[in-house]
Write a structure and sequence with these properties.
The complex is a heterotrimer of chains A (283), B (322) and C (278).
Chain A lengths: L36 E12 L2 E7 L2 E3 L3 E5 L6 H8 L9 E9 L2 E2 L5 H7 E4 L10 H11 L5 H14 L3 H4 L12 H13 L5 E5 L7 H14 L4 E5 L3 H7 L2 E6 L2 E7 H6 L4 H7 L5
Parallel strand pairs in A: 4-9, 4-10, 7-8, 8-9
Antiparallel strand pairs in A: 1-2, 1-3, 1-5, 5-6, 10-11
Chain B lengths: L8 H4 L10 H37 L9 E2 L4 E2 L2 H32 L2 H16 L2 H28 L18 H26 L2 H9 L4 H30 L2 H6 L17 H8 L5 H35 L2
Antiparallel strand pairs in B: 1-2
Helix pairs in contact in B: 2-11, 3-6, 3-8, 4-6, 6-8, 7-8, 8-11, 10-11
Chain C lengths: L2 H39 L5 H5 L13 H31 L4 H14 L3 H16 L4 H25 L3 H9 L4 H29 L25 H10 L3 H33 L1
Helix pairs in contact in C: 1-10, 3-6, 3-8, 3-9, 4-6, 5-6, 6-8, 7-8, 8-10, 9-10
The chains are: A alpha/beta (283), B mainly alpha (322), C mainly alpha (278).
């Protein structure tokens, strides 16, 4: 099945996971070569004080792919996501052991602010700053050294276009971001994360507070971003993972139970727990 | 301005902290400012201790039991002022607590939410009125009222009751312990009302509903269920009001009568620690100044203890949770 | 209805009415205060009040210009010292909390908040007046700043803490460091509340009398900041206790002016917070 490369017109609901976009080289010429590994964890453990939230998690995140992490509440998928950009360090008593590698480098050895510029994050509930739309997007580039006004305007426009929000807000960039609807705010946050041009974009249940139409818009957006950046998304919505992800990891009780191509996870999982979860027997 | 390339110069930027506020300076800088508080407290203790040293070395601890206050003969004792401070504050609480808690009950239990917020706003404005303005009103408005109406009435009512009558003896000037206590009570209202109201509002709705569902009247539900639940917070409010009353200077100075003696009658003129300091310190020197500083030290310690107690109680109420 | 039940209802109504009367009584006091001040003071407020120095007792007229200037000057000095210290200290308490140091600072700030202002006056006296051998506006300003610092510090801390963590995380996730996050995201988000705390603190010290009694003392004239300086609250005090009718009249006028300023600041501050909450 030929999938049009123009991602703006493609609706995820028409994509069945029986024919992943990858399988057709014409669809995504930029990833015709075998996928490279962007991030990798090795024996990752995580502790909140004395409570161990993650046990020996090892998985690979491939460049220019969408990787989904699913599992029941409290299984550690969000905790895992947050170790990738070290945002967990703000929590008192939180501690990681093992390795998290970005392009082969241990993230603990990198300067944390430049790590976070390269590995961006979008949160579950949209959190726009109490500033104007323009200033929200410009914030990231500003703290990372961009001060030229024209450059900033260009970045803001590009980011909002990539976030599929430009046409809706281009006339009101100076208005406060809080005036936008929930779905628009979340797209704003995505645009804000994109403004610093991250190599990896982490999304922690980005659609859980949104209605189905807004959710659809964001899923289309993520799909269109795939060839520019690497995406890791945590979701409690299995259908969402099935719709957009190339690979999926199933977490339970702090362990990575299974990690494989999305198609396999949903149609033919190797582990029983995975099967129980995706068929709805629990979760 | 739209560019077709998606690669943005920012990715190539390897500069990191250069454009951001320096972490170390921020942490250190703010810490230094915070340390100013410790410096101030150190200075407070230092000034009080060194200033009062002269008086303590001359009089020792009997300073606190002595009734003398004689600048001419350099004989100083703290008793009249401690007595006056305590009497005025306690009588003030006797007036302020029932009225204040009563008002708080009304605001928390009866008044509809909008009215309650509006009235509480006004009450909190009362807390902002400067002390000297209360004093101004006390001198010109309250004193005549006390002198011409309240005190004669009290004397008439209680004059023949044994024991109690000694509280209402003596000539009536309108000044003295009672008038000062009334002013203090008025100044303490806002604190008692607003904190008690919050303590009452913290009591979960289902407690009241449980009582009412069992057939209790509104008053019974309030008095027997809600009030006991909120008692820690209300006691905390009372402590805070007390601390405020103890340290109150201007309004009290203007109506206390400035008489350093110990008398039983509430109509008598007296003195409080803040009042004597306010009146005598500007011209004092030597031992007199040191004695006044010793009084200040005593007041300082008393208010710390009471404030600390109040905060513990209020902290305990918030820990107990809804 | 059996007697006992009827009695319980009657009691309930009586008691609840009593609480209403308590509320009515305590709140009407505010209106009495305002009413008396306006009644007694409004006729005495004229241009002379704001521009002239006090006349000697016996002569009518004059004003309290020196007190007004003195109050402005000392509140200004106190603000210049107290607001930065309180503000940055408050940032420390809110954002760098955790170490024992922060706990001690917080506890001590609360302690200072509760010290009677007359004791603060003694501190400033021994620190400055005693050493410089003169009363001065500087000493008065410092005394007021000692009161202002803990108020601004705790207020700043309170409003910074109210900023949701998600905002901080959002900033950190974009590669900003903690200091930038505080400066560019958290403080702007809390600015309304912090401003309120500052306004309320300044309004409070503007009305303080006791700490000025033996730091700035008083002055019938204006002789500059290094000499004894009049202030509005102290002038109200001295004029009220003096035996001259004309001075009483002036005291009412000054009281009205001072109260108007303090209440206006308080109302403005609370409206600012109310608007930011909506």
């Amino acid at each position: 099945m030929n999938i049009s490369k123009d991602s703006d017109t493609m609706s995820p609901s028409r994509t069945k996971f029986t024919s992943m976009p990858d399988s057709s080289p014409a669809a995504n010429p930029s990833v015709a070569s075998p996928p490279t590994m962007k991030m990798r964890t090795v024996d990752l453990k995580f502790f909140y004080g004395t409570f161990q939230a993650l046990h020996d998690v090892g998985l690979e995140i491939k460049s220019n792919r969408i990787t989904a992490l699913i599992g029941p509440s409290g299984c550690g998928k969000s905790t895992f996501l947050r170790t990738l950009n070290r945002i967990n360090e703000t929590v008192r008593g939180a501690r990681a052991e093992g390795e998290v590698l970005l392009d082969g480098e241990n993230v603990m050895k990198l300067d944390v602010t430049s790590l976070r510029r390269r590995v961006g994050m979008v949160f579950q509930k949209s959190n726009p700053f109490p500033k104007s739309i323009f200033e929200n997007i410009a914030y990231g580039p500003r703290v990372n050294g961009v001060s030229n006004k024209q450059e900033l305007e260009g970045i803001v426009e590009r980011s909002l276009q990539r976030a599929a929000l430009w046409t809706e807000v281009k006339d009101k960039l100076q208005k406060p971001a809080s005036a936008l609807s929930g779905g628009q705010q979340q797209r704003l946050c995505i645009g804000r994360a994109l403004a610093v041009d991250p190599e990896v974009l982490l999304l922690d249940e980005p659609c859980s507070a949104l209605d189905p139409i807004a959710t659809l818009k964001i899923e289309e957006l993520l799909f269109s971003l795939k060839d520019q950046t690497t995406i890791v998304i945590v979701t409690h919505n299995m259908q969402q993972a099935a719709r957009i992800a190339d690979e999926t990891g199933f977490f339970m009780l702090g362990r990575l139970v299974e990690f494989d191509k999305t198609e396999k996870i949903f149609k033919n999982p190797s582990k029983k727990e995975t099967e129980d979860y995706v068929t709805g027997r629990f979760g | 301005m739209a560019s077709t390339s998606t690669a943005v110069p920012v990715r190539q930027t390897q500069k990191t902290a250069g454009f951001q506020v320096s972490e170390q300076y921020a942490h250190l800088g703010t810490m230094v400012f915070a340390a100013a508080i410790l410096l101030i407290t150190g200075l407070v203790l230092y000034s009080l201790l060194t200033g009062s040293w002269l008086a303590f070395s001359k009089f020792g601890l009997s300073f606190f039991g002595s009734k003398a206050w004689n600048p001419v003969e350099n004989e100083y004792g703290a008793l009249p002022f401690i007595y006056g401070t305590l009497v005025t504050s306690f009588v003030a609480l006797l007036i302020a607590v029932p009225l204040g808690v009563g008002a708080a009950i009304f605001l928390a239990e009866l008044a509809p939410a909008k009215l309650s917020s509006a009235l509480t706003f006004l009450v909190e404005l009362l807390a902002a009125v400067p002390s000297v303005i209360y004093g101004l009103l006390a001198i010109f408005v309250l004193v005549p009222i006390m002198r011409d109406y309240v005190q004669p009435a009290l004397k008439a009512i209680f004059g023949h009751v044994p024991v109690v009558s000694s509280l209402f003896e003596g000539p009536i000037f309108g000044l003295g312990y009672l008038t000062a206590a009334v002013v203090l009570a008025i100044m303490t209202f806002p604190y008692i009302i607003s904190i008690s109201r919050e303590a009452l509002l913290d009591v979960p709705v289902d407690q009241r509903e449980a009582a009412l569902a069992l057939g209790a009247t509104k008053w019974e539900s309030t008095y027997q269920i809600v009030l006991p639940n909120a008692r820690l917070g209300i006691v905390g409010a009372i402590f805070l009001g007390l601390a405020r009353a103890l340290g109150e200077t201007m309004a009290v100075t203007m109506v206390i009568g400035n008489d350093p003696s110990v008398r039983a009658s509430l109509f008598a003129s007296g003195y409080t620690i803040p009042a004597v300091i306010a009146n005598e310190f500007p011209e004092a020197s030597g031992i007199q100044a040191s004695a006044l500083i010793a009084l200040a030290l005593a007041l300082f310690l008393i208010t710390i203890v009471i404030n600390g107690g109040a905060r513990l109680l209020l902290h305990a109420t918030s820990q107990k949770g809804a | 209805m059996p007697f006992r039940t009827r009695w319980r209802y009657v009691l309930s109504n009586v008691m609840m009415t009593a609480t209403g009367m308590c509320a009515f009584l305590t709140i009407s006091i505010l209106f009495f205060i305002l009413g008396f001040l306006v009644y007694n003071g409004i006729s005495s407020i004229d241009w002379a009040f704001f521009t002239q120095l006090p006349k000697p007792p016996g002569e009518n007229g004059g004003g309290m210009a020196n007190g007004i200037i003195g109050s402005f000057a000392m509140v200004g000095i106190a603000s210049l010292i107290g607001i930065p210290i309180g503000f940055f200290g408050g940032i420390y308490l809110a954002e760098y909390d955790g170490a024992w140091f922060a706990h001690i600072v917080r506890y001590t700030a609360d302690l200072l908040n509760g010290i009677p202002s007359i004791v603060i006056g003694i501190i400033a006296w021994s620190l400055i007046v005693f050493r410089t051998k003169t009363f001065s506006a500087w000493a008065g300003g410092v005394a007021l700043s000692l009161i202002l610092i803990p108020v601004v510090m705790r207020g700043t801390e309170q409003f910074l803490r109210a900023v949701p963590t998600s905002l901080r995380e959002g900033s950190l996730a974009l590669g900003a460091n903690k200091a930038s996050t505080i400066l560019k995201v958290v403080v702007p988000a809390a600015r309304r509340g912090i401003l309120t705390a500052i306004i309320l603190g300044v309004a409070r010290i503007a009305g303080e009398t006791a700490p000025l009694l033996f730091t700035a003392l008083n002055n019938q004239f204006w002789q500059g900041l290094s000499k004894p300086t009049a202030s509005l609250p102290v002038m109200i005090y001295t004029h009220a206790i003096a035996p001259y009718d004309d001075w009483h009249r002036q005291a009412w006028a000054a009281g009205l002016v001072l109260l108007a300023i303090v209440l206006a600041a308080n109302i403005a501050a609370r409206l600012v917070v109310a608007r930011s909450a909506s």
